[in-house]
Specification:
- By secondary structure, the protein is of the alpha+beta class.
- The protein has helices spanning about 15-30, 55-65, 95-110, 120-140, 145-155, 160-170, 170-180, 185-200, and strands at about 1-10, 40, 45-50, 75-80, 115-120.
- The protein has a five-stranded mixed β-sheet, sandwiched between helices.
- The radius of gyration is 16 Å and the shape is globular.
- Pfam families: SatD.
- InterPro entries: SatD.
- This is SatD family protein.
Length: about 200
């Protein structure tokens, strides 16, 4: 089984494309090469695949990166399933992971939510989607400053609050307050829960 995330940038027409697209490309290149592992297409849509264990953390890395840009947000559909055909271009690959992710993004555009998951198990989908709806009430309201801090924590797991204070030229107590406001410890627990539920598929 693999995970496929299909997403699109919200409010992309009101932002400097070159800035966010360069940042997104640099992030996705950490996880594999284009166009086999990831691709940006139709201006503001993207797709990439990863291990099922990594998918929640990858989703959050993208969410925090895009939210750290002014006026931007991102919608993402997570599909878990098989890859029956692997093409040189991810957008031409096929299997239930791709079908689940692609169809789900269309549903998200109509229901107003910013993240959802589809697996082969309706019970797992129900549990994880309730969790994602609650969590998104936080994620969708992150400020640019909070998003920057969360992104650094996700990308560099061994980073300390002191490191972040130096990088952003603010006090360590300010970093601590931002992490508390973002419920960072709860995010880490949610990632562990997510991995456990998906491992049961």
């Amino acid at each position: 089984m693999i995970a496929v995330i299909t997403g699109d940038i919200i409010n992309s027409q009101h932002a400097d494309t070159e800035v966010w697209i360069t940042k997104l490309k640099n992030l996705l290149e950490n996880w594999g090469s284009a166009p086999q592992t990831w691709e940006i297409y139709r201006g503001d849509e993207f797709q990439f695949k990863c291990n099922i264990d990594d998918v929640f953390w990858r989703f959050l890395a993208i969410k925090s990166l895009i939210k750290s840009q002014e006026n931007l947000d991102v919608r993402m559909a997570i599909g878990i399933g098989q890859e029956n055909f692997s093409s040189e271009k991810i957008t031409e690959s096929n299997g239930s992971a791709y079908v689940n992710s692609g169809r789900l993004l269309n549903d998200l555009k109509s229901d107003g939510h910013t993240v959802s998951i589809k697996t082969s198990n309706d019970s797992v989908d129900r549990d994880l989607n309730i969790l994602l709806k609650w969590a998104s009430k936080d994620f969708d309201n992150w400020t640019m400053a909070t998003s920057e801090i969360i992104h650094e924590m996700i990308m560099k797991q061994d980073t300390t609050q002191e490191d972040l204070a130096k990088k952003f030229a603010i006090s360590q107590s300010s970093i601590s307050q931002r992490l508390k406001r973002a419920n960072y410890e709860l995010i880490v627990e949610t990632n562990q829960y997510f991995r456990k539920k998906i491992s049961e598929l």
